[in-house]
């Protein structure tokens, strides 16, 4: 993994930066951030820092707005039955709510329709038109957040004698509807093209009744603007800033949701990570109307019922998402990620409403475009998410001959495909991307804004950057790279997969990175990208850093010898006598030719001597440095010191061992090419182990003491430290502990329960056996006798 400073490629005129910082009364860092985001002249800086309602542009500059206003006003005057047609995401819900509440405020009763994701699909379809005509019998339709690509459906609506105005914000297709259309991306003099659907609805109200009326709805539009991931610049920034300032006047149902989420002062981050997921849940699980009613319902009892239902649906969404994610990980276990340039997975039973979320999660994990598909009405439908620089819409277009339909943009899309074409699509998508984009697009790179030095870790420094709020897409919150070593990580008592790290001036938290615990104890620099927040505790402000990304540098020194030998002894699995014969002996010179790209090779070292050798000879080809286990999932070339297990080895085409392999059965089931270039022949690896019954009794007793206390730990090393502490036996060695527990486990004298974030040993008191009944024990005993 690489960490890259976003500001590195910018040559700053320090005198200009200083002058601008003084003129606008901000820090130099703020000016540098603005420069990096293309805001470089005084006018733009002033508008950004002092964003106000003055940045609400003239709505009549939007193409079609004058005609739309005339048509809507005439429909109201003629008392026509008006129907608002929206979409099932937060933007569609908020867009519908804005127009609905506006018409309500002028005394005009209107109907609304939000499509069901599964029954109706996105936008207008002929079936949807027939449904709404039968249900509402409208005379005038206004679309929000949809419609610009529905020219056939609009023609059909007009043929039924129904007037229609389309308001949308999506990309303009080759053919647009033959009706009044308002979309900022249509050719016009409007100075800003990036409004969301709710932003366009806001402009319609501004055109109908003036700016002061439109300002009443910025708080709703702010929710949609953040949630729909449109750039928080120019007018969008003004909408969100004004909306957040007036959040207390949000509809009562939304305010109750905010209270339930324990949000004290609404921020753009709260919208993105707390509010929007809840509102989107309704549409993802089927009926977006549930979330919409929060904007129009005033009865407290009804609001409580809506929120209860939303919470139930959100739990269902989380459960469905977790199940799909786990299924995807299991499908990928035996596939080589380093070979892939896109991941395509499918199932007959996945919930279609959450596929986009899981696509994004897997894209982040594996650094590959990800497509997930599930069976719906005898075809497969799904979502796809891409990486920066890889235009996934173009790649879908190349496969259009085998797709039923598809849509989207450069970063994401949706598609429908026949079952018979799934494997062909998977192969062609991979081949096309591989032939179009080189390896650099798939190398894991994370960006940050500033290097954080100890002297910068102050509340005033972090507060100086708050002038950049509200944060969101196109105006991301600044993040920092911070380097530390020689720390003692602590697990939170009630949340053991959360780890707290205390440095000189900063408390740092990691969430769901428990697998890094042992690695954090090693002697190397740890580079982290941090999101730093100011918290108030007991009326005192303090800083807390949240780790977004973590990267280890090369080890400075080895860990304890008994720990190194202990993980080497993990190769002592039960011999099957089906020896793994696919190991190829190679020389040092051969390794250069094997590592011909930055992907696909794992070098495994089980001694510090071989680790240093690898750094000296192959560091130009190594992307990641890991200890204990491979925690990078991208298949990038990795140097691993002390392998706990072979988990994630399947992500590599080539696995090279630089130390003798104790037991080749350890490699059974490997599909990778396995090479041995043994530069370290240490006969002490096993000869230091004690095979005496007395020694086994010594360790069994220590385990029994801990077992009686009903204590468990989270890894082998932590459990070893626990039994050492509980028993008071100071001479316990980790390598002997591994040997003893593997033998006793094979004899069924103990049971080892080892899972992620959990390690425990239980004793089977009724089982007795001779040590020489263990093939592992006999293997070591014979090894000691012959070496």
Keywords:
single chain, 787 residues, alpha/beta, inorganic pyrophosphatase (n-terminal core), Diaminopimelate Epimerase, Chain A, domain 1, 5 domains, seven-stranded mixed sheet, 28 helices, 27 strands, 39% helix
How would you explain this protein's 3D organization?
With about 775 residues, the protein is α/β, with parallel strands linked by helices. Helix content is about 40%, strand content about 20%. A hairpin with a 2-residue loop joins β18 (about 525-535) and β19 (about 540-550). The chain is elongated. The two termini are about 40 Å apart.
List the helices and strands and how they pair.
Elements: E1 2-5, H1 14-24, H2 28-36, H3 42-49, H4 65-77, E2 82-85, H5 90-105, E3 111-113, H6 126-136, E4 140-143, H7 151-159, E5 163-167, E6 180-182, H8 197-209, H9 211-214, H10 218-227, H11 234-245, H12 252-260, H13 268-285, H14 289-296, H15 300-332, E7 343-347, H16 355-366, E8 370-376, E9 379-385, H17 392-398, E10 405-408, E11 412-417, H18 422-436, E12 445-448, E13 450-451, H19 459-463, E14 480-484, E15 490-491, E16 498-502, E17 507-511, H20 517-520, E18 526-537, E19 540-552, H21 561-568, E20 583-585, H22 588-594, E21 601-605, H23 608-618, E22 624-628, E23 638-643, E24 654-659, E25 673-680, H24 684-687, H25 693-708, H26 716-727, H27 734-746, E26 750-755, E27 758-763, H28 775-786
Parallel strand pairs: 1-12, 2-3, 2-4, 4-5, 5-6, 7-8, 13-14, 17-19, 20-25, 21-23, 21-24, 22-23, 24-25
Antiparallel strand pairs: 8-9, 9-11, 10-11, 14-18, 15-16, 16-17, 18-19, 26-27
Helix pairs in contact: 1-2, 5-8, 5-10, 5-14, 8-10, 10-11, 10-13, 12-14, 12-15, 13-14, 13-15, 14-15, 15-16, 21-27, 25-26
């Amino acid at each position: 993994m690489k960490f890259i400073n976003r500001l590195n490629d910018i040559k700053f005129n320090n005198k200009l930066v200083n002058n601008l910082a003084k003129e606008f009364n901000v820090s130099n860092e703020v000016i540098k951030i603005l420069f990096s985001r293309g805001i470089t002249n005084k006018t733009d800086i002033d508008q950004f820092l002092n964003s106000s309602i003055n940045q609400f542009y003239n709505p009549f500059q939007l193409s079609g707005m004058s005609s739309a206003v005339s048509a809507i006003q005439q429909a109201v005057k003629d008392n026509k039955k008006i129907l608002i047609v929206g979409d099932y995401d937060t933007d569609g819900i908020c867009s519908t709510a804005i127009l609905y509440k506006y018409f309500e405020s002028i005394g005009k009763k209107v109907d609304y329709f939000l499509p069901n994701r599964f029954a109706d699909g996105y936008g207008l379809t002929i079936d949807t038109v027939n449904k709404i005509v039968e249900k509402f019998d409208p005379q005038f339709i206004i679309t929000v957040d949809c419609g610009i690509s529905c020219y056939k459906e609009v023609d059909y609506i007009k043929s039924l004698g129904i007037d229609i105005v389309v308001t949308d914000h999506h990309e303009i297709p080759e053919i647009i509807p033959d009706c009044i259309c308002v979309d900022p991306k249509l050719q016009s003099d409007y100075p800003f093209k990036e409004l969301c659907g709710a932003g366009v609805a806001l402009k319609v109200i501004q055109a109908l009744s003036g700016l002061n009326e439109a300002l009443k709805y910025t708080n709703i539009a702010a929710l949609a603007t953040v949630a729909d991931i449109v750039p928080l610049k120019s007018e969008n920034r003004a909408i969100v800033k004004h909306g957040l300032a007036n959040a207390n006047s949000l509809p009562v149902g939304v305010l109750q949701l905010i209270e339930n989420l324990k949000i004290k002062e609404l921020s753009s981050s709260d919208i993105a990570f707390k509010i929007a997921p809840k509102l989107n849940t309704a549409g993802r699980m089927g009926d977006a109307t549930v979330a919409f009613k929060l904007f129009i319902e005033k009865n407290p009892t009804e609001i409580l019922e809506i929120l209860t239902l939303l919470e139930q649906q959100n739990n269902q969404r989380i459960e469905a998402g977790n199940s799909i994610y786990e299924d995807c990980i299991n499908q990928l276990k035996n596939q080589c990620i380093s070979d892939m340039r896109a991941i395509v997975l499918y199932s007959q039973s996945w919930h279609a409403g959450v596929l986009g979320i899981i696509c994004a999660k897997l894209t982040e994990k594996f650094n590959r475009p990800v497509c997930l598909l599930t069976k719906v009405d005898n075809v497969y439908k799904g979502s796809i998410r891409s990486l920066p620089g890889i235009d996934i819409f173009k790649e879908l277009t190349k496969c259009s001959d085998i797709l039923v339909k598809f849509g989207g943009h450069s970063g994401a899309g949706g598609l429908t495909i026949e079952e018979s074409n799934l494997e062909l699509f998977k192969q062609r998508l991979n081949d096309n991307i591989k032939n179009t984009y080189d390896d650099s697009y798939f190398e894991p790179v994370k960006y940050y804004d500033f290097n954080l030095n100890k002297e910068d870790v102050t509340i005033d420094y972090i507060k100086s950057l708050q002038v950049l709020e509200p944060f969101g897409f196109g105006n991301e919150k600044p993040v920092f790279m911070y380097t530390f070593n020689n720390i003692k990580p602590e697990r939170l008592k009630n949340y053991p997969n959360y780890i707290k790290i205390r440095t000189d001036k900063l408390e740092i938290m990691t969430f769901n990175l428990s697998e890094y615990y042992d690695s954090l104890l090693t002697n190397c620099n740890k580079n982290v990208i941090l999101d730093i927040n100011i918290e108030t505790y007991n009326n005192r402000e303090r800083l807390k850093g949240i780790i977004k990304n973590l990267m280890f540098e090369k080890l400075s020194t080895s860990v304890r010898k008994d720990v190194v030998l202990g993980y080497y002894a993990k190769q002592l699995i039960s011999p099957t006598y089906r020896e793994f014969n696919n190991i190829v002996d190679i020389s040092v010179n051969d390794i250069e030719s094997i590592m011909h790209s930055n992907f696909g090779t794992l070098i495994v070292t089980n001694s510090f001597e071989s680790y240093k050798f690898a750094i000296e000879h192959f560091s130009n080809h190594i992307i990641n440095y890991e200890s204990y286990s491979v925690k990078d999932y991208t298949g990038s070339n990795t140097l691993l010191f002390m392998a706990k297990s072979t988990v994630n080895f399947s992500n590599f085409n080539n696995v090279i061992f630089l130390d003798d392999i104790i037991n080749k059965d350890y490699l059974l089931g490997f599909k990778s090419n396995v090479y041995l270039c043994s530069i370290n022949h240490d006969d002490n690896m096993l000869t230091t182990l004690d095979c005496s019954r007395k020694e086994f009794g010594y360790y069994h007793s220590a385990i029994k003491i801990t077992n009686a206390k009903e204590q468990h730990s989270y890894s082998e090393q932590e459990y070893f430290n626990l039994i050492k502490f509980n028993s008071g036996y100071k001479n316990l060695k980790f390598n002997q502990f591994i040997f003893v527990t593997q033998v006793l486990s094979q004899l069924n004298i103990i049971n080892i329960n080892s899972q992620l974030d959990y390690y425990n040993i239980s004793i089977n008191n009724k089982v007795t056996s001779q040590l020489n009944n263990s093939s592992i024990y006999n293997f070591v005993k014979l090894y000691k006798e012959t070496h």
